[in-house]
Amino acid sequence: GFQSVLTGGVAAGVGLTLSMGVTAGLDILRQPMAIALAAAAFLGIAVLRWPLWLVLAGLAPIGMAWYWPRERKNREEGQTS
After folding, report:
1. Does 70 or 22 have the greater pLDDT score?
2. How far is CA 9 from CA 2, 6, 13, in A?
3. Whole-angstrom distance between the N-terminal and C-terminal Cα of the chain?
């Protein structure tokens, strides 16, 4: 009945989340700055027990500033990342 449909939906959601996590994790392994940002987020949230919003407010601008110029440069050179 409805419970089996709900269980299937939950399983699909878990699978998609896991797939995206693995894909993002593999991309991170090739970028030292991304590893540093992930480690800083882990340190802030898991070790120091800071609120998520505070960690994101500090790390999001750093990540955007690091990524944005590189992406713009690649577009100007005609490269696709």
Report:
1. 22
2. 11, 5, 6
3. 46
DSSP sequence for 8-71: HHHHHHHHHHHHHHHHHHHHHTT-HHHHHHHHHHHIIIIIS---HHHHHHHHHHHHHHHHHHHH
Overall size of the chain counted in residues: 81
* Angle (deg, nearest 10), helices 32-42 and 2-28: 130
pLDDT tens readout for residues 38-49? 999 999 999 999
CA 25 to CA 81: how far, in whole Å?
17
pLDDT at residue 15, rounded to an integer: 92
Cα distances from 53 to residues 3, 5, 37, 77, in angstroms, run 35, 35, 15, 36
Greatest extent of the chain over all pairs of C-alpha atoms, in Å:
56
